[in-house]
Amino acid sequence: MLPVRIFFIILFYTSSFLIAHNIKYENFELDNKDIKYLIIFILTVILTAAVTGRLRSKNRDPGFVSNSKNLIKNFVINLGLLALAVNYIGQLSTSRFLLTASLSLGFFFELIFIIVTSEFSAKSKDSSVFSLSKTILLIEFSILVWIIIFTLSSSAFNAYTVKQKLFFVITLMVIWFVNGTLNREFDTIENSTFSSILWNHIKSYIIFFLIISALLFLFTLPVELKKIITYNLILFSLWALAAVAIYYIYKSPPRTDAVSFSLFNTTEFPEDFYKTNGANGVVETVKHQSPIQSQLLKFQLKEIYLKNFSDVYDFLNDQLDLEDFDISKCSIIRSADMYNIEVLPPHSLELYINLHELNDIRRINAYLIEVNRKLKSNGYFVGRFESNKLRYKNYHKKYPFYLANIYYSLNFVWKRVVPKLPFLKKVFFFFTKGRKRALSLAEGLGRLYYCGFSVKAINEIDGFLYFVAKRHREPSTDKNPSYGLFFKMKRVGKSGKPIYVYKLRTMHPYSEYLQKFIHDNFNLKEGGKFENDFRITSWGKIARKLWIDELPMLINWVKRDLKLVGIRPLSFHYLSLYDKEYVKRRNKHKPGLIPPYYADMPKTLEEIQLSEQKYLDAYEKKKIFADIQYFCKIFYNIIFKKARSS
Q1: Same domain, yes or no, for 296 and 347?
Q2: With contact defined as beta carbons under 8 Å apart, do 379 and 468 qualify?
Q3: Most confident of 171-180, 244-253, 344-353, 595-604
Q4: How many Cα atoms within 13 Å fall on the side-chain side of residue 453?
Q5: pTM for this prediction
């Protein structure tokens, strides 16, 4: 509608003229010369809009980019017409500030109007869809405000009035917003790569810097002031670019292992963890081969595939009956590419060997699960990874002692700590693509168990830990393997029902899946703990001695999952080691936050059971009085006898 458009043009540019006049003269009082200039100004704007077709509805393109380009054309023509009028009509001579400020503000108002009213949809005639990101706009606006405040606080601005400072701020803001909008700096472009988005911002910052530099050249300002403004513009560009890069990295979908990070993660075995299931019950098992076939794999491994890995061949020959495998159902590669395993038919392999370290595979769990799917029941997977301890040794073989410690510490923080933090892990995977990730021995083996393997043997060869893993079940259905600082463990509660006990992590990630492996390969020491338990971190040992890891269990006490004094909440696997008849009695009672262990300090598993039975005998007779008696005795042992959990 023509009248409506003319009305808005008059409204926008009249308002801009009055605002510019107030900034210049500090009042809204217009004399005859100002009124004449305002009339010429409005007529020029309307005439330009008519010439460029902005007043014709049938030719009006609803797309943002087309409208904004047309508006720029208007601005240039208006500026030229007004300059001619001021230069050749003496009565209309006015200040350059009033001329440029009124036209610039009017341009800004119209641009805002276009942003609000344009059709930002797939139906737009623009070649690409515009979608304004309020987050990016807010990020850059906040940084620009900070830079402006920092600039105005310099001594070079002391000689300028508030009006002049305000003009500087408005000009900078308008140019930044207009430039950023036209260059799609605040646009969330779908299906764009990170590099293209970043390059788009760099181009926009360069244009912004050049525009301001041109204005500084035109205005007669002190050299010191120009240097300060130029320096702060560069500072703004660098800070804004860094902030936008971090935002896009965080916003991009994670391409890491399928591990959810929450404050407390479920980390105990699922109920069917030790059940060995085939694929729908029809998975073919490894069969014995004919004498001719039996020698073929052994020969090719020794003379071709593992010719340069003689120690690896000896390790496999000791651990596996290589004569039992059909070479047509074996695969030997050295690659971190998922494609090599994805293209194979399900349950088609008896033996899969990958000599490339797991540390370089971006999505380790997804890779191991895929290997699990390609193996037959009881098929074998042979691989390797560099554990943290081996990486420490390798650094010390390569560099002098102190330099090796520095390199390893930096490597540990970047490739071990950062990937486990909720926000920074996206930054790590973006820059490293998951290569050379740090893995502890417990995490490396724990991931294998989590993905359905049981580890038959491990051996350190040439700076890597080689393993032979057997497929013995489907991958775990647990969606939240332990990975965070805090976690919750599945424990046996009253009536044998599962409860989840909160704790501070003192073990390496995925350690809970190694409980059977630890039980099969390590002995129990005094106190019922496993001897030489490599799952515990160095700082975890300190936390356990100080009971820091037990503090989150207060949540269970508040939730009434645990009582203050009572039998220790045990895992289903550990409880399976107890006497069956005693377990029935034990399950009738609610576990406690403070176990009777600290009252009697038993040393063996049998003594631990007797200690708990002694407590239950007293509790079943005296209830609360027995708990008070045990609490006092435990408190005395801890404070004065330095009783500690082993």
Answers
A1: yes
A2: no
A3: 344-353
A4: 29
A5: 0.53
Q: Is 496 left (phi over 0), alpha (psi -120 to 50) or beta?
A: left
Q: Reply yes or no on whether the pLDDT at 569 is more than 70.
A: yes
Encode burial over 83-116: b for 16+ CB neighbours within 10 A, e otherwise: eebbeeeeeeebeeebbbbbbbbbbbbbbebbbe
137 & 163 share domain = yes
Domain assignment present for residue 219? The answer is yes
Mean pLDDT (the chain, rounded): 79
Contact between residue 398 and residue 411 where contact means Cβ atoms under 8 Å apart: no
Q: Do 158 and 68 share a structural domain?
A: no
Structurally, how many domains does the chain consist of?
A: 4
Calculate the CA 249 to chain-centre distance: 8
Classify 507 as helix, strand or coil.
strand
- The domain of 78 spans 1-121
Q: Which two tokens stand for residue 310?
A: 């003689």
Beta partners for residue 465, in sequence order: 385, 460
Residue type for 288, please?
H
**Order of strands across the sheet with 330-333?**
330-333, 349-354, 375-385, 464-471, 453-461
Cβ atoms of 283 and 347 within 8 Å: the answer is: yes
Q: What residue type is 195 in one-letter code?
A: S
Six-digit token pair at 87?
């230069």
Which residues fall within 8 angstroms of residue 392, CB to CB, at 6 or more apart?
408
- Output DSSP code: residue 119: -
334 touches 356 (CB < 8 A): yes
